[in-house]
Structures are given as C-alpha cells and as structure tokens.
Amino acid sequence: LGWKFYDADDYHSPENRKKMAAGIPLNDEDRIPWLCALHDILRREESSRQDAVLACSALKRMYRRILVSGVSAIESNQSEKPRENAALKILFVHLDGPKDLIARRLEKRRGHFMPLELLKSQLDALEPPTAPENFITVSLEKSLPEIVLEIEKALFSG
Known about the structure:
CATH topology: Rossmann fold
Radius of gyration: 16 Å
CATH architecture: 3-Layer(aba) Sandwich
Number of helices: 7
Number of domains: 1
C-alpha cells in the first residue's frame, strides 16, 4: 500500500511491558495513556495526509473510541458517538479466529514481552466491534494473501 506501519506494542510504557512480561494483564488505566499516544500518532499522519496501518489490540469499544477521538472519547464517555470534529476516519479490522489458532501463532513469536498466558485475559476483555463502528471482521483461518486481499477490498471499495 505504501502506507506507514506502526506496531502499537512498540509504544507501550516500560511499566506496561514489565507488567505483561510478569503475566499481569493490563487494565484500562494502563492502556488509556498508550491509546491516547497512538491516537496522536494517527492524528499526526492524517494532518500530513499520510495513510497509516496500526497493528493494535483495541480490545474494547472504549479503546477504539479513544483511537478515533483521543482524549475527547474519555471526556464524553457517556455519549455513544464521539465528537465528529475530532474523529479520525479509521477502518478497524477485527481478526477473528479460534483460541487454539491464536495460541499457536503466539507461541511462534520470539522476543516479545507478552507471554502466551495473557491470551485468556485478552479474549475475556474482548468486545468485538459492532455497528455503528467502522469495521470488518476477517477470519484468521484464511491464508495471509486472502486476509490482505479482503482488507484491501474493504479499504478501496468505499
């Protein structure tokens, strides 16, 4: 695509990394500053008219709202809809698959601070996207080329 790529894990604080490495799941308070920083990166890219891909475990609806609207999503948490003037246009890609497939892929990662034991807590916290969120769901059981093609179709069809 020629787009900039960001791995959200690269932006976790040292404290978050230590906590995860110790097998302790992050809570909302741990994640909110991280998500706000990620929103700022996406906002900067939008300001310079640069498209970007962000690989991120935006597990909860609130987390995705923070990515779209930054701190204003926290301030207006009672409202279902973020303030339009602050909202980034983001297509969320929900990669969905069986727990055992995800676990096998996590086991193959080397040098990552998040241990396999945290997968259960991530799945327990997961709130899959729903309308009116801008998202597609793609099966992890497809091949990588099929996954990429499905995402590209969604990006360029509307």
